[in-house]
Design a protein that fits this description.
The protein has a six-stranded mixed sheet with strand order 6-7-8-3-9-10, with helices on both faces. Strands 2-1-4-5 form a four-stranded antiparallel sheet, with helices on one face. Helix content is 34%, strand content 26%. The chain has a domain of 140 residues: 3-Layer(aba) Sandwich (Rossmann fold), CATH 3.40.50.300. It contains eight helices and ten strands.
């Protein structure tokens, strides 16, 4: 699903924190790359440093040593062409703004006309299955619909890189499956390179071209597992394949320290 062009590269990334009791070593010698149009999930035990790694990728934090590059440029602040979808949609959406005004927030910085903004909002809401909901407020929508609005806002700016931190953890199982399929559709339609943190190994296998497994304290890359499941993927057929079960078992064993 990728073009072969490297969009993200992490090279020997180390992250340490100063705490009242001394230095806490979080990440150690993290290296991986992400190609254009590729979907990568980052998995590992709770507290291993997955979200810390995402913050480094967004430029909100700087590594103690090592380098993160996006499009060949060293990341020292949030880079252009970046969009983020968070776990808690109730905090990422402004409840006092309508759906269309929530989505228009990042668009206003692009210098678009009112007509162009309206057309973009219509396009992305159609993409996420929420056409006609422009005038609704987030609190009038279900949790799954609110997260669709957050995804619509993210893709409205046509990002080159989409970062997602546990984006489906706050919704029920059926809605989670629907949102997973939505993310695959968005990736295919918009050719967006995506990095996602998740605790759900089945989800990581279903969505990803590769899975970056973090393990240890400090964490390093246990393995980068390639996912060769064919496209298009299907919640029943793909999850029922023997290869799916083998990948899930392998990654679970690595996350649990059994391999």
């Amino acid at each position: 699903m990728s073009t072969g062009k490297v969009i993200v590269s992490a090279e020997s990334v180390v992250m340490d924190y100063q705490t009242p009791t001394g230095i806490k070593h979080v990440l150690n010698d993290i290296s991986f790359s992400l190609l254009e149009g590729e979907f990568a999930s980052i998995v590992g035990p709770s507290g291993v440093g997955k979200t810390t790694l995402l913050r480094l990728l967004t430029g909100l934090m700087q590594p103690t040593s090592g380098t993160i590059r996006i499009n060949g440029e060293v990341v020292t602040s949030p880079p252009p062409g970046l969009a983020v979808v968070l776990q808690d949609y109730t905090r990422s959406l402004m409840p006092w703004l309508t759906v269309e005004k929530n989505i228009s927030l990042p668009l206003k910085r692009l210098g678009l006309s009112k007509t162009e903004i309206a057309e973009t909002i219509e396009l992305v809401l159609t993409e996420v299955g929420l056409r006609g909901n422009q005038k609704n407020y987030p609190w009038q929508l279900s949790g799954g619909m609110q997260q669709r609005v957050a995804i619509a806002r993210a893709i409205a700016v046509r990002p080159q890189l989409l970062i997602m931190d546990e984006p489906f953890a706050s919704v029920d199982a059926q809605t989670r499956f629907d949102l997973e399929d939505l993310v695959l559709k968005v990736r295919d339609d918009f050719k967006i390179t995506t990095a996602m943190v998740t605790h759900d190994i089945d989800e990581a296998v279903y969505l990803s071209d590769k899975v970056v497994v973090l393990y240890g304290s400090p964490a390093d890359v246990k393995e980068i597992v390639k996912v060769d499941l064919p496209y298009p993927r299907n919640q029943v057929a793909s999850r029922g394949r023997e290869e799916f079960a083998e990948l899930r078992t392998k990654i679970y064993a690595q996350v649990r320290g059994l391999q």
